[in-house]
């Protein structure tokens, strides 16, 4: 936009300068020639009284004095064929002037001016002077240089003004673009200043209105999710009462633990829905959380004859994720293993430190692998599930500054590698 505006202004100013400067340059050339011609004519006419007097001695002296003072050369041609003053040929213009006609004619190297003088007899003499091309164009180059400098100055000033104007407009447009990028990144407090021309102020107002509307809609969505999640507490309460009514046994303990885990997940959903995405994600000891969740799921694995292999780093292993989100993440990974692999399928859980801070959690199984290559995308499953579990894992990892990847083991099983970030204090 800036370059186009400069090209447009430069083109318009250049056309205007051509329309005005070229005629002025031609006019300066014409005025210089007319001035020199007028000066030479006045010089020649100064001898008319002397020539008209008809005294050859006085005429010769007057012509000699006029030429000795410098200026345009003067020559007086007499009717008897003689000539006085500066040497000059008897040209066609001179011969025409003997008929009683004064005139100006172009000649080689300049302009010839002849004045017919009537003495005792018509056409008694002709006064001739010559103006060279240098005299006809004296001062023209300087005038053209001044016009060129003025034109260049006008062009430069117009380009500078156009550039300043373009910069101000581009700054406003770039500012609104930056606001849109901040909104896209989740900063719903970003607002565009209502500055500049009316059109840009309207665009800024529309962008700010959109930001406010997005914020309202997200708030409504969070509250709706929180309300729906809160409604799950009633059936969970019933399940808890039913679990507490069971006779004491290992199975009743597992049911109670499952109800507790469900309550924690519902509470996390409510808190997550009402929390701004710019809230601090928190941190926890991944070694303790992962070890606790693997131990919890190991009891169900024992019932299904699933071999479980653990390679867990010792605590502390701090990650930039809260305890509840990390618990939900580990549960989602292990639940996928139990839900999508046959019983007696072995799986391995590995937790190692991450270079630069954080941890790397790997869950691998000997099952049939992932049926869909894009299972990390929200809603993508390929099996009879919601497709949200692995998306929760991915978003939890990215919120901490990490990532999640899916691979297939050499035996065809599924492997999920999740990196949790954490900035080590310096």
UniProtKB/TrEMBL annotation:
<keyword id="KW-0902">Two-component regulatory system</keyword>
<keyword id="KW-1133">Transmembrane helix</keyword>
<dbReference type="GO" id="GO:0005886">
    <property type="term" value="C:plasma membrane"/>
</dbReference>
<keyword id="KW-0464">Manganese</keyword>
<dbReference type="Pfam" id="PF00512">
    <property type="entry name" value="HisKA"/>
</dbReference>
<dbReference type="InterPro" id="IPR005467">
    <property type="entry name" value="His_kinase_dom"/>
</dbReference>
<keyword id="KW-0812">Transmembrane</keyword>
<dbReference type="InterPro" id="IPR003661">
    <property type="entry name" value="HisK_dim/P_dom"/>
</dbReference>
<feature type="domain" description="Histidine kinase">
    <location>
        <begin position="227"/>
        <end position="424"/>
    </location>
</feature>
<dbReference type="GO" id="GO:0000155">
    <property type="term" value="F:phosphorelay sensor kinase activity"/>
</dbReference>
<keyword id="KW-0904">Protein phosphatase</keyword>
<dbReference type="InterPro" id="IPR003660">
    <property type="entry name" value="HAMP_dom"/>
</dbReference>
<dbReference type="Pfam" id="PF02518">
    <property type="entry name" value="HATPase_c"/>
</dbReference>
<dbReference type="InterPro" id="IPR036890">
    <property type="entry name" value="HATPase_C_sf"/>
</dbReference>
<keyword id="KW-0378">Hydrolase</keyword>
<feature type="transmembrane region" description="Helical">
    <location>
        <begin position="143"/>
        <end position="162"/>
    </location>
</feature>
<dbReference type="InterPro" id="IPR003594">
    <property type="entry name" value="HATPase_dom"/>
</dbReference>
<dbReference type="InterPro" id="IPR050980">
    <property type="entry name" value="2C_sensor_his_kinase"/>
</dbReference>
<keyword id="KW-0472">Membrane</keyword>
<dbReference type="GO" id="GO:0005524">
    <property type="term" value="F:ATP binding"/>
</dbReference>
<keyword id="KW-0597">Phosphoprotein</keyword>
<dbReference type="InterPro" id="IPR004358">
    <property type="entry name" value="Sig_transdc_His_kin-like_C"/>
</dbReference>
<dbReference type="GO" id="GO:0004721">
    <property type="term" value="F:phosphoprotein phosphatase activity"/>
</dbReference>
<feature type="domain" description="HAMP">
    <location>
        <begin position="167"/>
        <end position="219"/>
    </location>
</feature>
<dbReference type="Pfam" id="PF00672">
    <property type="entry name" value="HAMP"/>
</dbReference>
<protein>
    <recommendedName>
        <fullName>Signal transduction histidine-protein kinase/phosphatase MprB</fullName>
        <ecNumber>2.7.13.3</ecNumber>
    </recommendedName>
</protein>
<keyword id="KW-0067">ATP-binding</keyword>
<keyword id="KW-0843">Virulence</keyword>
<keyword id="KW-0460">Magnesium</keyword>
<keyword id="KW-0346">Stress response</keyword>
<keyword id="KW-0547">Nucleotide-binding</keyword>
<keyword id="KW-1003">Cell membrane</keyword>
<keyword id="KW-0808">Transferase</keyword>
<dbReference type="InterPro" id="IPR036097">
    <property type="entry name" value="HisK_dim/P_sf"/>
</dbReference>
<keyword id="KW-0418">Kinase</keyword>
């Amino acid at each position: 936009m800036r370059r186009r505006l400069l090209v447009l202004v430069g083109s318009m100013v250049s056309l205007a300068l051509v329309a005005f400067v070229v005629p002025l340059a031609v006019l300066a050339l014409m005025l210089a020639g007319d001035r020199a011609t007028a000066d030479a004519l006045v010089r020649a006419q100064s001898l008319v009284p002397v020539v008209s007097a008809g005294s050859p001695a006085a005429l010769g002296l007057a012509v000699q004095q006029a030429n000795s003072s410098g200026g345009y050369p003067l020559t007086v041609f007499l009717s008897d064929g003689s000539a006085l003053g500066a040497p000059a040929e008897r040209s066609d213009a001179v011969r025409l002037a003997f008929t009683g006609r004064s005139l100006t004619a172009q000649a080689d190297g300049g302009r010839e001016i002849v004045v017919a003088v009537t003495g005792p007899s018509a056409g008694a003499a002709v006064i001739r002077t010559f103006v060279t091309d240098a005299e006809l164009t004296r001062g023209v180059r300087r005038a053209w240089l001044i016009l060129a400098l003025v034109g260049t100055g006008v062009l430069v000033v117009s380009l500078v003004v156009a550039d300043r104007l373009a910069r101000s407009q581009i700054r406003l447009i770039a500012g609104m673009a930056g606001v849109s990028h901040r909104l896209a990144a989740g900063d719903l407090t970003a607002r565009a200043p209502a500055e500049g021309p009316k059109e840009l102020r309207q665009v800024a107002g529309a962008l700010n209105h959109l930001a406010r509307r997005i914020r309202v809609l997200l708030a409504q969505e969070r509250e709706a999710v929180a309300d729906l999640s809160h409604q799950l507490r009633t059936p969970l309460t019933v399940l808890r009462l039913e679990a507490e009514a069971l006779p004491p046994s290992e199975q009743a303990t597992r049911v109670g633990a499952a109800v507790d885990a469900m309550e924690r997940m519902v509470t996390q959903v409510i808190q997550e829905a009402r929390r701004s995405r710019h809230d601090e994600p928190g941190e926890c000891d991944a070694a303790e959380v992962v070890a606790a969740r693997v131990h919890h799921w190991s009891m169900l694995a024992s019932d299904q004859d699933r071999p479980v292999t653990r390679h867990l780093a010792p605590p502390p292993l701090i990650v930039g994720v809260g305890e509840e989100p990390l618990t939900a993440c580990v549960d989602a990974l292990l639940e996928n293993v139990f839900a999508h692999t046959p019983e007696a399928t072995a799986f391995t859980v590995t937790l190692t430190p991450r270079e630069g801070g954080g941890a790397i959690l790997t869950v691998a199984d000997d099952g049939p692998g992932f049926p869909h290559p894009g299972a990390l995308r929200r809603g993508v499953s390929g099996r009879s599930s919601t497709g949200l579990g692995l998306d929760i894992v991915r978003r939890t990892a990215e919120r901490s500054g990490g990532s999640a990847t899916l691979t297939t083991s050499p035996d065809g099983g599924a492997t999920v590698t999740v990196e949790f970030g954490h900035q080590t204090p310096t």
